[in-house]
Amino acid sequence: MLIGVISDTHGNVTALRRALELLDGADMIIHAGDVLYHPPRLGCGEGYDIPAFVDVLNGLDIPVVIAQGNCDAQVYEELLKMPVQSPYAYMCWNGVRILAAHGHLLTRSQMVELGKRYKADYFIFGHTHIPVLENVDGVTLLNPGSPAIPKYEFNGKPAPSVAVIDEDGARVINIEDGSTIAKEL
User: Which of 121, 122, 123, 149 is 20 to 30 A from 2 (CA-CA)?
Assistant: First the structure.
């Protein structure tokens, strides 16, 4: 079992391609929202290419589950060949229960309570562009950070990141060098 976890790609096809290299062999990918759109305050950086991004994402031959982010407008969702679920996406894969939401409308304690209510092993969220991996009351909170616009520094420089869940648990990975930023204990 290998589940890829990604969030806050904001239409950056270069970041998506680098992330997918690390997620090669995944059985499914969970995207915690803000898939395509770059809000004006973020600007359109290098790699921002909606048509190319959509082609790559739609061309994947594995399931992609998307929880709607605050920047995911319906006009962009119409380009995707997979549903964008709102406000939550719930799935069970090989006995692992996962609840995903973008997280912009939830506090940490609300995420934990929702995770407990749905007996989730993982509550996946995004929005902050900062990786989180911690177990709270039996629910592992997992934010993969952002491969496109990281707001987290590792070893003194921005760390674009994704996460994976496998038989050994979850880990957050720097997509530039493959190093582990955080690992579930």
Answer: 149
Angle between helices 13-22 and 50-58 (to 10 degrees): 30
Phi then psi dihedrals of residue 22, to 5 deg:
-75, -25
Amino acid identity, residue 91?
A: M
Pick from 17, 18, 13: nearest CA to 175: 18
Q: Counting every residue, how long is the chain?
A: 185
- Measure the CA–CA gap between 178 and 56, rounded to whole angstroms: 21
Q: What percent of the chain has pLDDT over 70?
A: 97
- Which of 47-56, 98-107, 117-126 is predicted least confidently? 47-56
Question: Are 160 and 150 spatial neighbours (Cβ–Cβ below 8 Å)?
Answer: yes
Closest CA relative to residue 51, chosen from 3, 12, 108: 12
Q: Which residue has 């803000």 as its token pair? A: 34
Q: Which two tokens mark 88?
A: 């939550």
- Whether the predicted model's global pTM rises above the 0.90 cut: yes
